UniProtKB/TrEMBL annotation:
Belongs to the YciB family. Plays a role in cell envelope biogenesis, maintenance of cell envelope integrity and membrane homeostasis. It comes from Primorskyibacter sedentarius. The chain crosses the membrane at residues 12-29, 41-62, 74-90, 102-122, 168-185. PANTHER family: INNER MEMBRANE-SPANNING PROTEIN YCIB, INTRACELLULAR SEPTATION PROTEIN A-RELATED. Keywords: Cell inner membrane, Cell membrane, Membrane, Transmembrane, Transmembrane helix. It is found in: Cell inner membrane. Pfam families: IspA. This is Inner membrane-spanning protein YciB. One of its GO terms (cellular component) is plasma membrane. It is a multi-pass membrane protein.
Amino acid sequence: MAERKINPILKLALELGPIVLFFVAYLRLKDRSFLIGGTEYDGFILATAGFVPLMILSTLALWKLTGRLSRMQVATLVLVVVFGGLSVWFNDDQFFKMKPTMIYLLFGGALGVGLLRGESYLKYVMEEVMPLEQEGWMILTRRLTAFFLGLAVLNEVIWRTMSTETWVYFKTFGLSAAIFVFFMTQSGVFSRYGIDEES
Protein backbone atom coordinates (compact mmCIF):
# COMPACT_ATOMS: atom_id res chain seq x y z
CA MET A 1 0.00 0.00 0.00
CA ALA A 2 1.41 3.36 -1.04
CA GLU A 3 2.20 5.86 1.67
CA ARG A 4 -0.21 8.79 1.83
CA LYS A 5 1.48 12.19 1.72
CA ILE A 6 1.06 14.45 4.73
CA ASN A 7 2.35 17.89 5.59
CA PRO A 8 6.16 17.50 6.00
CA ILE A 9 6.17 19.79 9.05
CA LEU A 10 3.48 17.66 10.73
CA LYS A 11 5.42 14.50 9.87
CA LEU A 12 8.62 15.96 11.34
CA ALA A 13 6.74 17.10 14.46
CA LEU A 14 5.34 13.60 15.00
CA GLU A 15 8.74 11.98 14.49
CA LEU A 16 10.80 14.38 16.61
CA GLY A 17 8.15 15.65 19.03
CA PRO A 18 8.49 12.85 21.61
CA ILE A 19 12.29 13.22 21.66
CA VAL A 20 12.11 17.00 22.12
CA LEU A 21 9.49 16.66 24.87
CA PHE A 22 11.61 14.01 26.63
CA PHE A 23 14.57 16.39 26.55
CA VAL A 24 12.51 19.31 27.92
CA ALA A 25 10.96 17.12 30.63
CA TYR A 26 14.38 15.83 31.66
CA LEU A 27 15.79 19.36 31.96
CA ARG A 28 12.85 20.39 34.14
CA LEU A 29 12.86 17.28 36.35
CA LYS A 30 16.52 16.21 36.45
CA ASP A 31 17.27 17.60 39.92
CA ARG A 32 14.03 16.44 41.51
CA SER A 33 12.78 13.16 42.93
CA PHE A 34 9.20 12.00 43.41
CA LEU A 35 7.65 9.58 45.89
CA ILE A 36 5.04 7.49 44.06
CA GLY A 37 3.41 4.50 45.72
CA GLY A 38 6.12 4.40 48.36
CA THR A 39 8.93 4.30 45.77
CA GLU A 40 11.24 7.20 44.99
CA TYR A 41 11.74 8.01 41.30
CA ASP A 42 14.16 10.56 39.90
CA GLY A 43 13.36 12.99 37.10
CA PHE A 44 14.97 10.83 34.41
CA ILE A 45 12.65 7.92 35.15
CA LEU A 46 9.57 10.18 35.09
CA ALA A 47 10.68 11.72 31.79
CA THR A 48 11.09 8.19 30.42
CA ALA A 49 7.64 7.21 31.71
CA GLY A 50 6.19 10.11 29.74
CA PHE A 51 8.26 9.42 26.63
CA VAL A 52 6.98 5.86 26.10
CA PRO A 53 3.26 6.69 25.68
CA LEU A 54 4.15 9.79 23.63
CA MET A 55 6.18 7.59 21.27
CA ILE A 56 3.29 5.14 20.97
CA LEU A 57 0.79 7.94 20.24
CA SER A 58 3.02 9.69 17.69
CA THR A 59 3.73 6.40 15.87
CA LEU A 60 0.03 5.51 15.78
CA ALA A 61 -0.73 9.01 14.46
CA LEU A 62 1.87 8.57 11.70
CA TRP A 63 0.35 5.21 10.80
CA LYS A 64 -3.17 6.67 10.74
CA LEU A 65 -2.15 9.65 8.60
CA THR A 66 0.24 7.93 6.17
CA GLY A 67 -1.31 4.47 6.01
CA ARG A 68 1.97 2.66 6.67
CA LEU A 69 4.95 2.29 9.01
CA SER A 70 8.44 1.20 8.04
CA ARG A 71 10.06 -1.80 9.69
CA MET A 72 12.55 0.61 11.28
CA GLN A 73 9.73 2.63 12.87
CA VAL A 74 8.07 -0.52 14.22
CA ALA A 75 11.35 -1.92 15.57
CA THR A 76 12.20 1.41 17.20
CA LEU A 77 8.79 1.61 18.86
CA VAL A 78 9.06 -1.95 20.21
CA LEU A 79 12.50 -1.26 21.69
CA VAL A 80 11.32 2.04 23.21
CA VAL A 81 8.38 0.29 24.87
CA VAL A 82 10.48 -2.65 26.10
CA PHE A 83 13.53 -0.79 27.39
CA GLY A 84 11.61 2.29 28.54
CA GLY A 85 9.12 0.04 30.31
CA LEU A 86 11.92 -1.91 32.01
CA SER A 87 13.53 1.32 33.22
CA VAL A 88 10.27 2.50 34.77
CA TRP A 89 9.30 -0.91 36.15
CA PHE A 90 12.66 -1.54 37.80
CA ASN A 91 13.32 2.16 38.51
CA ASP A 92 16.67 1.78 36.74
CA ASP A 93 17.81 4.19 34.02
CA GLN A 94 20.33 1.74 32.57
CA PHE A 95 17.69 -0.09 30.51
CA PHE A 96 16.62 3.07 28.68
CA LYS A 97 20.21 4.13 28.12
CA MET A 98 20.86 0.77 26.47
CA LYS A 99 18.01 1.28 23.99
CA PRO A 100 20.04 3.17 21.32
CA THR A 101 22.67 0.43 21.52
CA MET A 102 20.03 -2.22 20.82
CA ILE A 103 18.47 -0.18 18.00
CA TYR A 104 21.79 0.37 16.21
CA LEU A 105 22.89 -3.24 16.75
CA LEU A 106 19.57 -4.39 15.28
CA PHE A 107 19.82 -2.11 12.24
CA GLY A 108 23.53 -2.76 11.71
CA GLY A 109 23.05 -6.49 12.21
CA ALA A 110 20.14 -6.67 9.77
CA LEU A 111 22.09 -4.77 7.11
CA GLY A 112 25.10 -7.00 7.79
CA VAL A 113 23.04 -10.17 7.27
CA GLY A 114 21.89 -8.78 3.93
CA LEU A 115 25.47 -8.06 2.93
CA LEU A 116 26.46 -11.65 3.77
CA ARG A 117 23.71 -12.77 1.40
CA GLY A 118 24.95 -10.38 -1.29
CA GLU A 119 21.93 -8.10 -0.93
CA SER A 120 21.26 -4.56 0.22
CA TYR A 121 18.32 -4.54 2.62
CA LEU A 122 18.74 -0.75 2.72
CA LYS A 123 17.61 -0.66 -0.90
CA TYR A 124 14.25 -2.20 0.03
CA VAL A 125 13.67 0.47 2.67
CA MET A 126 14.92 3.57 0.86
CA GLU A 127 14.73 2.85 -2.88
CA GLU A 128 11.74 5.15 -3.40
CA VAL A 129 13.51 8.01 -1.67
CA MET A 130 16.97 7.61 -3.25
CA PRO A 131 17.09 5.66 -6.53
CA LEU A 132 20.63 4.25 -6.90
CA GLU A 133 22.40 1.69 -9.04
CA GLN A 134 22.99 -1.67 -7.32
CA GLU A 135 26.70 -0.97 -6.72
CA GLY A 136 25.79 2.30 -5.03
CA TRP A 137 23.37 0.51 -2.72
CA MET A 138 26.04 -2.03 -1.76
CA ILE A 139 28.62 0.67 -0.99
CA LEU A 140 26.12 2.69 1.04
CA THR A 141 24.93 -0.40 2.90
CA ARG A 142 28.49 -1.42 3.87
CA ARG A 143 29.21 2.08 5.15
CA LEU A 144 25.92 2.38 7.02
CA THR A 145 26.40 -1.04 8.63
CA ALA A 146 29.78 0.04 10.01
CA PHE A 147 28.31 3.41 11.04
CA PHE A 148 25.42 1.84 12.99
CA LEU A 149 27.74 -0.58 14.77
CA GLY A 150 30.05 2.33 15.61
CA LEU A 151 27.12 4.29 17.08
CA ALA A 152 26.17 1.27 19.20
CA VAL A 153 29.69 1.15 20.66
CA LEU A 154 29.77 4.93 21.16
CA ASN A 155 26.45 4.88 23.03
CA GLU A 156 27.75 2.17 25.35
CA VAL A 157 30.92 4.12 26.07
CA ILE A 158 29.05 7.35 26.80
CA TRP A 159 26.33 6.02 29.08
CA ARG A 160 28.72 3.81 31.01
CA THR A 161 31.45 6.42 31.54
CA MET A 162 29.66 9.78 31.62
CA SER A 163 26.84 11.50 33.50
CA THR A 164 23.16 11.01 32.71
CA GLU A 165 22.93 14.62 31.57
CA THR A 166 25.79 14.13 29.10
CA TRP A 167 24.07 11.04 27.74
CA VAL A 168 20.73 12.88 27.33
CA TYR A 169 22.45 15.62 25.30
CA PHE A 170 24.25 12.99 23.27
CA LYS A 171 21.04 11.06 22.57
CA THR A 172 18.99 14.16 21.73
CA PHE A 173 21.50 16.04 19.61
CA GLY A 174 24.62 13.93 19.06
CA LEU A 175 23.00 10.89 17.47
CA SER A 176 20.76 12.97 15.18
CA ALA A 177 23.69 15.15 14.12
CA ALA A 178 25.86 12.08 13.48
CA ILE A 179 23.25 10.55 11.15
CA PHE A 180 22.78 13.85 9.32
CA VAL A 181 26.55 14.28 8.86
CA PHE A 182 26.90 10.67 7.69
CA PHE A 183 24.40 11.12 4.87
CA MET A 184 25.89 14.49 3.93
CA THR A 185 29.29 12.83 3.53
CA GLN A 186 27.80 10.25 1.13
CA SER A 187 27.10 12.82 -1.58
CA GLY A 188 29.79 11.23 -3.77
CA VAL A 189 27.89 7.91 -3.78
CA PHE A 190 24.60 9.66 -4.54
CA SER A 191 26.05 11.68 -7.42
CA ARG A 192 28.03 8.79 -8.93
CA TYR A 193 25.40 6.05 -8.64
CA GLY A 194 22.18 8.06 -8.57
CA ILE A 195 19.54 7.16 -11.16
CA ASP A 196 17.66 9.88 -12.99
CA GLU A 197 14.02 8.94 -12.34
CA GLU A 198 12.88 10.53 -15.62
CA SER A 199 15.16 8.24 -17.61
